[in-house]
Structure formats: structure tokens, C-alpha cells
Amino acid sequence: MEHKTDDDYIQKTHNTERFSVEHPHITWVLLIATLLWGVYGYTSMPQRKDPDIPVREAQIIIPWPGMVTEKVEQLVTRPIELKVAENVHIKKIESTSRVGLSVITVELDDKVTDTDKQFDDIKYRLDSIHDLPEGAGPIQFFKDYGNTAALMLTVASPKVSGVEIALRARDIEKAIRQVRQQALTGPEERRVTLVVGFPISIIPRIVHPSIDRFAAYIQKAGLTRDVRLIEGPGFVGIDGATTASDAQIMDFLDRFIRERLRASELHPDVWEPVLIRDPAETAAVLAQHPGDKYSYREMDDFTKLIERTLLGVTVALDKTPIVTKVSRSGVLDEVVWMEYSQERLASYGGNVTKLPDILKARNIAVPGGVLEVEGKEVTVQPSGEFKSAKEIDNVMMAVTANGVPVYLRDVAEIYRGYESPPRFLNFFTSRGAQDQWQRSRAITVAVQMRAGEKIGVFGKAVDSALADLKKILPEDLIMVRTSDQPLQVKENIDLFMNSLYEAIALVVLVSWLGFWSWRLALMMSISIPLTLGMTFGMMYLLGIDLQQVSIASLIIALGLLV
């Protein structure tokens, strides 16, 4: 074999290095193109905190209040399982039947790539079920409980201000002094007043039944006597003569709430009860136990406005909605309560079984059709739908033998309240002005970002919308970010950039100390951003988004490269 000299290798060997040296203009074009490709991929690829992992499980919940487990299994769970099993891509179906509730979990086959399509098919099959027993349902289908919120905003009520406490204390002190002018007190007894406050928007009569029961209970137990009721805007209470201490009375109240009061009788908007012995100290006592300023109904209105605003957030360039879903946790649904006396209803010839039919006949919520007038179509809107609780009061339910109409207000007390018992209550705990922990009622708003968007753009758009909302919402309303993915992604990217700067600095330092050549050090330092440029470009082509898993991989790869 003929030996090749160095000149032969130089003249006849062709590789990438030689081509780059002999054609520097092409090399520079490719270098700049690669860097631009990486910059374009980095600025264009989606950014989020967590990787997108398809959820293959869905859950079906069907309530049937009051029904035994066997009936729930036979008449609800089993038919729905058979209907869901008609989908050929189902891998597993698990169900749990309890008293008044059926829970079914569905898992798709691992070979399914388009999970949304199969979940939609299951939803259509569930919607076709119309033969469930009376009282069962509705069928609730959850397929996106695996999605994570890009932003969680906790909206909490502040405590009442000092001005409101002073105004409330003035009314309470006046009521206490008035009732004690006619009170009877023994030689060893002292008058004490138990006061329960609540927001001004709450009607005092809603809290009255609980206070009346406690007044009767505490008198019967012999702890107090000569108990008198006080009430005013935003408060109710009882005043009585007693020899017991404050601690004994509060322990008795706690025992009464645990043993004698049902959960449905505890109004969620009431404040912590306080004891007042000297009317002159009313303001000081209230200041030590301030209540929440806003009721759950007002908090519901505030968060509804936030929900509608965030759903309308769009990207500035093409006006594409960037928010796909906004959910709220801790909302108490409002209901209308009707409290009636069976004897009073019977005295007017009424029947409780006919009340639902009477209300349905009056509460018309169906379309009225279209009327053609002179070639134009006019939509007819029926006016029978209830708009307030007062309209329910005015519903006529019967007529006496003398022809006198009997209205619902004559036999029942109708008022607005909350669903009872509440299914879920949310609270926000923070440090108060006196460095003490305090708890306030709250509602958490979870915001989900549309897939394929950049979390930084999402964060700026939401920040702008919330800044505009603060001009409309009360100034003292508390809004705290309990989970902020835009901030977390920014911190992860900053961590990666710091690692990049450190890597470049280490490469330059080691090359300079090892070879004493600034050209070699410069060439090796340029290789790091060039490699990242190719990496970001390929990530963009392959549809890999920038999230904490890919960032961690880049940091590890950067360490190996160095």
C-alpha cells in the first residue's frame, strides 16, 4: 500500500471543516441563518409551565338524592355503564354507587390519539339517555379535570373598616341601652348582650330563627333570665341577666351550635358572635372581632364580572381569545326559600302537594313564538317568569269561600338565601393590621390558557384586563394570585439563561487558561449559542413547546456540552 504524504491528504481530503474554510461566505451565511432560525423558533414556540399530557380518564356523576344504594346501582349506574360501553375505544369502566350518588370513571384505550373525539362521542351517548328515574340527574360529565390552570386568583372579602365598625357600634349601643332601660336585674346579676353581625345586605329575619332558639335554650338551662331581643341594620342579638362569665356563655353557645343547630340553620354570612357587657365598650369589642364586609352573594357578583372579563381577553394582533376556560371555586348558589305552616296552609284550603304546580303555572320560561306584523317578524316574550322573590309572594294560590284571593305571602314566608348545607366553602387566611392571622370568605378563580399560546403573552394580557377591572371593583376587595404560572415560567427561563451565561464564561475562561488563544476561546464560546440555535429550531419544527421539562433537559444538555 502506497504511503500518502501530508500534501496528498491536504489536496485530496474533502470534509465539512475544509469546505467551511475554503468558502467563508457560505459559512457565515449558514451561521447567521442558524442563529436566526433559533431565534425565530424560540420566539414562536409555545411556552407553558407543564408539558401537555393527554388525559385518558373521564368521570360521570349522577345524583339521586335520598335513594338507597341498590336502587342507584340498578336504575342509574348499570344503564349508564351499558350506554358508555357502546364506544369501542373504552379500556376500562369503574363505578361506585352510594346513597344518593353514582360515580362512574371511564378510561380510554392507550392506542387512542384523539381523546377529545372519543370523549365527545361518550358525551353524545349520555345526552341521548332520557329514561332515568324521576329525581335522578342531571348527568354530569367531566373530561378536563386533568387540565391545569395557568393562573389562580383568589378573591377575598376584606374586614369591615373602622368607619363601618363605628357606625355599627353606634346602632348596637343604642339598641342595648334602650332594651336595658326596661330590664330586670337581680342584686348579683349583670346584663350581657350576645350580638351577631352580618353584612347590611342581609335581612335580619333570616338570622332570627337561630337566635330565638338559642334564647329559649339558654333560658331553659337557667344560665340567663329576662332575655330580650335586639335587632337593627346588620345585627341581631339577645340581652339577658346572668351570673355566668363570658367563657361559660361562649362554651354554652358552642355546645348549642354543635348539638342543637342543624347545618342548614347556620347562615354563612354571619360574623363571629361577640359578648358586650358595657354598652360604652361596644366599638372596642367589635374592633377585636371584625366581620367580613361583603356577603357571598356580593362575592359571586364580583367574580362573575371577573369571569366575563377574562373570557374576553384576546391577543392584541389578531384578536384571538387566549383564555379557554374560567372556573370558580367556593361559590354559594342562591336559592329562594319558602317556609310555611301546614296548619295555616290547611286553614285556607291549600295543599302542599299543589304548590309546585302553582309555581310552574305562574313561572313561564318558554318562548312565546314569532308574530308577523306588516311583513316584519316580532318576537313575543312571555312576561310570566319570576324576576324576584317578591313576585313569588304575589302568586295567588287559592280563593276562599267568600271569593277572597289567598296569596303565597298569606301562608308562607319567602326569602332569598343560599344552598344549604353548602357543598364547598373557600377561605383566605392572611395577617391583619395587628400582625394577627385572620380568615375571610373567598372565591378562587382558575384561568386556563388556550393550547399553543405563549404563557408570557397570556400573563401580560390578563394583567392588563385585571388592571382595568380594579377601576370598577371595590378598592378594598382582596385579589391575590395563589398560583401564577407566567411568573413561574419566567423564573425557569431566567434560571436557564443564567446557566447559559455561566457556561459561556466557563468555556472562555478554561480555553484561555488552557490554550492561551483568544481565537480558540471565541470559537468555543460561539459553539454554545450556535448549538442552542439549532436546538430551538428543531424543537419548533417538531412541535415541542418550552416548559419546565424541556428547560430542565436543556440545562442538563448544556452542562454536558460544556
UniProtKB/TrEMBL annotation:
Give one GO molecular function term: xenobiotic transmembrane transporter activity
InterPro entries in the cross-refs? AcrB_DN_DC_subdom, Acrflvin-R
Record's keyword terms, sorted: Membrane, Transmembrane, Transmembrane helix
**Record flagged with keyword Membrane:** yes
Which Pfam family, just one, is annotated for this protein? ACR_tran
Give the transmembrane ranges. 25-43, 500-518
Task: Give start-end of the signal peptide.
Answer: none
Gene Ontology, cellular component aspect:
plasma membrane
Q: Which Gene3D superfamilies match?
A: Multidrug efflux transporter AcrB pore domain, Multidrug efflux transporter AcrB pore domain like, Multidrug efflux transporter AcrB TolC docking domain, DN and DC subdomains, Multidrug efflux transporter AcrB transmembrane domain
What protein name applies here?
Efflux RND transporter permease subunit
Query: What organism is this sequence from?
Result: Desulfobacca acetoxidans
